[in-house]
């Protein structure tokens, strides 16, 4: 019994520390967060207390108002914290991969399935919407990466739809904070078993490419790499 109590206490302590760290992170980007949260809490509580005095039940409405004020404050805090996190991640390498990693159940994500020397990168997500290729980097260069990766996907899983998303703030691009929403809006055309089969085929192809034997020793004189040879990823 003592062990379970100590474990619960440790979990609560860890949760409080996480909330405190989140608040500090949010406050760095949102200086007014404290005033906003206090205002939301007091306004909701004040409204319910006023109604309670008007109808003659200030205690009951006060308790209800306190609970709803706490809930409303938590919702506002969560949304502003998420906005602050996206603001700090915007433009950072690997930001899209972090978003995909937290997209939720039903999706399998693979970061950096394609990359070039300029650090432009394409990530892959597989779900009931099919295959979604999410690119981040220079808009002109990532289009070449996306085209090559879509061509490869069509060879491996020709019967699965392939979508592409370019992360950015320019025309035709998707903001980082809207990546998850964009993926969720794609029509669901695959069943659970089809998603599993697609992942298996992609995984098998990846294993095949990684285990492909390479010739040892120096390259024979006069021998050239074929034009269709492997490219840097």
From TrEMBL:
It comes from the Bacteria. Pfam families: DUF4191. This is Membrane protein. Residues 219-233 have a biased composition (Low complexity). InterPro entries: DUF4191 (IPR025445). The chain crosses the membrane at residues 33-53, 59-78. Residues 210-233 are annotated as: Disordered. Coiled coil: none annotated. Keywords: Membrane, Transmembrane, Transmembrane helix. The keyword Phosphoprotein does not apply.
